[in-house]
Amino acid sequence: MATTAELFEEPFVADEYIERLVWRTPGGGSRGGPEAFDPKRLLEEFVNHIQELQIMDERIQRKVEKLEQQCQKEAKEFAKKVQELQKSNQIKEAADIIQKLHLIAQELPFDRFSEVKSKIASKYHDLECQLIQEFTSAQRRGEISRMREVAAVLLHFKGYSHCVDVYIKQCQEGAYLRNDIFEDAAILCQRVNKQVGDIFSNPETVLAKLIQNVFEIKLQSFVKDQLEECRKSDAEQYLKNLYDLYTRTTNLSSKLMEFNLGTDKQTFLSKLIKSIFISYLENYIEVETGYLKSRSAMILQRYYDSKNHQKRSIGTGGIQDLKERIRQRTNLPLGPSIDTHGETFLSQEVVVNLLQETKQAFERCHRLSDPSDLPRNAFRIFTILVEFLCIEHIDYALETGLAGIPSSDSRNANLYFLDVVQQANTIFHLFDKQFNDHLMPLISSSPKLSECLQKKKEIIEQMEMKLDTGIDRTLNCMIGQMKHILAAEQKKTDFKPEDENNVLIQYTNACVKVCAYVRKQVEKIKNSMDGKNVDTVLMELGVRFHRLTYEHLQQYSYSCMGGMLAICDVAEYRKCAKDFKIPLVLQLFDTLHALCNLLVVAPDNLKQVCSGEQLANLDKNILHSFVQLRADYRSARLARHFS
C-alpha cells in the first residue's frame, strides 16, 4: 500500500500513473534491458495493484464519511448556539419592551384601558416566570455567566426577589450532609460568598438574606428540636444543650463577621441569634437556679445517706441566738454532747462537686445572660453556693463539731474538732478561689461587687467565730485532759520522798505522760491549721499549759530532793514548750524553771537568786509563794533570810 501511495503525484494523470507502474514492474519494459518483456507478470502486477487501490478507496471513503458526520454535528451545535444567543437577545429585548410597557400601563386609566393593562400584566408575568425558570436551570447547570445575565434582566422586575429566593434555596440543596449543622452552614456561606459577587449586583444583600434564611429556618428548627424535648423533663440536659447550642451559634456568627453583609452586620447577626434563643433566654436564670438548688441538695443528701446520718435541725431565732451568745461568752456547752464517732461531716468530694456545679452555672450565666442582667444573675448563683456549701454543709459540720466537743472535765476525751478545722480551712481556700476566679469577673464592674464581698465577709466571720469557739473549747478539753493525767499520776511523795537518798528517777511519771500528750496535740494543731493561725492557737495552748503547770506545782510541799525532781519535771515541760516555737511560751517556762530553783537553793542564797535576771521583775508575792512550798519554810532561819 505504501508503494501504491508513492505512485500518486499531483496533478494526477492516469496514463502517466500506469507508465510509472509498468516501469517499476520487473519484465514490464518494452525496450530491451536486463529482463525481457513478460506480459503474464505484468498482468499479475496489474491485478494485485487494482486490489490495493480498492482497499485504499474503501479506507478513504470511511474517513470521508466520519469527517462529514463530525462536520454536520458541529454545524448543528453551532446553529443551536447561534439560535440560543438570538433567543437570549430576544428575551433581553422583550424584557426591556415589556418593562417599559408595564411602567406606561401604570399611568393609564383602568376603565378605558383595562384590557390593554391586563394583557401587559399577563405578558409581564409570563416573561418574569420564564426568566426565573431560565435562572433556575442555569444555576443547576452551574452556568455562572448565564445566571449573571438573567439576574441583570430580572433586576428591574418585581420578581427579582423571587430570583434571589430561588438562588438561596438551591444553594442549600445537599449542603447539610454532615452531623454538624453549624459547620455545614459555615462552609455553605463561605462557598456562596465567593460566588455571589459574580452573579448579583448587590452581593452583600443576597448573602445577608441567605444567612437570615439559614438562621431563621434551618438553625431555629434544629435548636427547637434539641431543646424542646428535654425542656421540661431534664433540666440538666436542657441547660447543657442550651449552652452548647448558643455557644456554637455565636461562634458561627463570629465566622460570618468576616463577610460583607452591609452596614451594621454586628447588629444584624445579634438580632438573628436573639430571634432563635429569646424564648429560652427569657427564663434561663430561673431554670439555672432551680436546677442548681435541686442538684446541690441531692449532692448533700447523697453524702449524708452514705454516712447513715440524719441531719439534725439547727434551730434559728431568739432562743438559738441567745444560746449562741452565751456559749461564745462563757464557753459552756449548752445541751448534751453528741458523739460524732470521729466523723467531721465535711467531705472534700462533696465540696468539689458543689463547686463544679456552681462553676458550670457561672459559665452558663456568663454566656446566656443579657449583659445588664449578668451581675444580678451571678449574685443569685453565688447565694445558692453560700446556702448549700457554706451553711448547709460547712456550718452544719461546725455546729455538729461544736456539739461533739466534750466538757473540759471529761476523761479520755477524743477531740475531733481540730479535724473539722483542718478540713474547713481547705474548703475555705477552694471557696475563695472560686469566688475570685469565676464570680469576680462577672460582677467586678457592678454594684453587686460590694454586696458579694460583704456577704462573703459575713459568712467567713460567722464561721471563724464558730471555729474560734470550737478551738477554745478544744483547748479547754486538752487542759482538762492534762489535769486528769496529773491528778492520776502525780503523787505527793514524788516531791517529798520518804528516802531522800534513794531517788532513782530523773522526772516523774506524770510529767512523762503530760509531755507526750502535749506533743501529740501540738503536732495535731500544726497539721490542722496554717499561717498565723497556728502560732495564735499554739500561743494560747502554751499559756494555758504554763498556767496549769504553775498551779499544779503550787499544790505540793517540796523537800530538797523533791525540789530537784520538780526542777527536772519543769525542764522537761520547757523542752516540750520549745516544740511550740513561740517565744512567749518558752519565756514563761524559763521563768517557771527559775522559780523552781527557789525550792532547792540554800537559805543564805535566796535573796541573791530572787534578784537574778529572770526573777528580779516578778512580784514579790509570787516569789514568796514558791518559797513557802519548801518543806523547811517554817524554820526560823529560812523565814529570816527571805523576809
Number of strands: 0
Largest sheet: none
State the share of residues found in helices, binned by percent. Answer: over 70%
* Global Rg: 54 Å
Question: SSE string, helix = H, strand = E?
Answer: HHHHHHHHHHHHHHHHHHHHHHH
Helix count? Answer: 23
Strand content: under 5%
Tell me the overall shape.
elongated
* Class from helix and strand fractions: mainly alpha
Mean pLDDT: 84
Low-confidence region ranges:
none
Protein name: Exocyst complex component 5
Domain Exocyst complex component Sec10 N-terminal: 39-90
Organism: Canis lupus familiaris
Keywords: Coiled coil, Exocytosis, Transport
Characterise the protein shown here.
Residues 50-88 form a coiled coil. One of its GO terms (cellular component) is cytoplasm. Belongs to the SEC10 family. This protein is mainly alpha-helical and 643 residues long. It has helices at 2-6, 14-24, 39-107, 110-141, 144-154, 160-171, 181-196, 203-228, 235-256, 265-281, 284-306, 318-330, 348-368, 374-403, 417-443, 448-489, 509-528, 532-553, 560-578, 583-596, 606-610, 620-627, 636-642. The chain is elongated. It starts with a helix and ends with a helix. The mean pLDDT is 84.
Q: Features of this protein?
A:
mainly alpha, exocytosis, 643 residues, Exocyst complex component 5, coiled coil
What topology does this entry show?
Blueprint: H1 2-6, H2 14-24, H3 39-107, H4 110-141, H5 144-154, H6 160-171, H7 181-196, H8 203-228, H9 235-256, H10 265-281, H11 284-306, H12 318-330, H13 348-368, H14 374-403, H15 417-443, H16 448-489, H17 509-528, H18 532-553, H19 560-578, H20 583-596, H21 606-610, H22 620-627, H23 636-642
Helix pairs in contact: 3-4, 4-5, 4-6, 7-8, 7-9, 8-9, 8-10, 9-10, 11-13, 11-14, 13-14, 13-15, 14-15, 14-16, 15-16, 15-17, 16-17, 16-18, 17-19, 18-20, 19-20
